[in-house]
Amino acid sequence: MEKMSYLRIFILTIFCLLSLSARAQMNHHHHHHDMSDNDGGFVMNENIDRLPNGCEAIRSEKSITVYASKKYATGVPGTVYGMSDYEWNVEPCSKITVTFINEDKVRHMWMIHELPKYLYPAGMFHIEASGGKSQTGTFITPSEDKNYLVHCDMSQHMEMGMRGQIIVGKGSGDLWSVTGITDHLYRASYLPQYIIFFCVLASIFGFILNAKLVKRERKG
């Protein structure tokens, strides 16, 4: 009976951990965002004048034009969709204006992750354009050197080739699987973000539980 009780506790612990992870993922996707709707798309979390911490003023301004289309995937193995560029170098504390031009018939996005959440809800700046349309949005880069993920968040478009990086200052090291630039390292998109951590934690818990059961059996 004691073995069954320990086993039930173990199973319930794993279930709770996975449930918390899934809920965190849902909260991430449903976080409040500032959005401006335009004809043929929208811009989310635009920032034209709020300075990130560590920035006393706008150091520079830069305009970027990005094209999205299947034709940019031509010649790149394992891709279906592509962008005209996959890497952009910008300075810290800079105002960056992005014009995103969608040359396909399907919707595409240009999304940055891990920006400061006190300026960009959920840490994202996001442009979405319908097929054959274009959108323009502006954001201000943080003060520290870092590489930020840029990708299309439409279903499977990142896995199909639309994954890049924006390098602020000296950067913090290349991100994995930047199309045509860095090597691949995949994690199934349906798995919770922290599943590896929970698996390790569960393994440790299981090892300790097993050791206690063995010890009890020896005493008995």
Features:
220 residues, alpha+beta, Immunoglobulin-like, four-stranded mixed beta sheet, 2 helices, 28% strand
How does this structure look, described?
- The chain has 220 residues and is of the alpha+beta class.
- The chain has a domain at 33-168: Cupredoxins -  blue copper proteins (Immunoglobulin-like, Sandwich), CATH 2.60.40.
- 24% of the residues lie in helices and 28% in strands.
- It has a 7-stranded mixed β-sheet with strand order 1-2-8-7-10-11-5, with no helix packed on it. A 4-stranded mixed β-sheet has the order 4-3-6-9, with no helix packed on it.
- Strand 1 (35-38) and strand 2 (41-44) form a beta hairpin.
- Helix 1 packs antiparallel against helix 2.
Shape: extended
As for the CATH topology of the domain at 33-168, it is Immunoglobulin-like
Largest sheet: 7 strands, mixed
Strand residue content:
25-35%
Helix content: 10-25%
**Radius of gyration (Å):** 22 Å
* CATH architecture assignment of the domain at 33-168: Sandwich
CATH class categorisation of the domain at 33-168: Mainly Beta
Distance between the termini: 14 Å
N-to-C order of helices and strands? HEEEEEEEEEEEH
Q: How many individual β-strands? A: 11
Strand order of the largest sheet: 1-2-8-7-10-11-5
Question: What's the layout of helices and strands?
Answer:
Layout: H1 2-29, E1 35-38, E2 41-44, E3 60-69, E4 82-83, E5 87-90, E6 94-102, E7 108-112, E8 125-129, E9 134-140, E10 146-151, E11 163-168, H2 195-219
Helix pairs in contact: 1-2
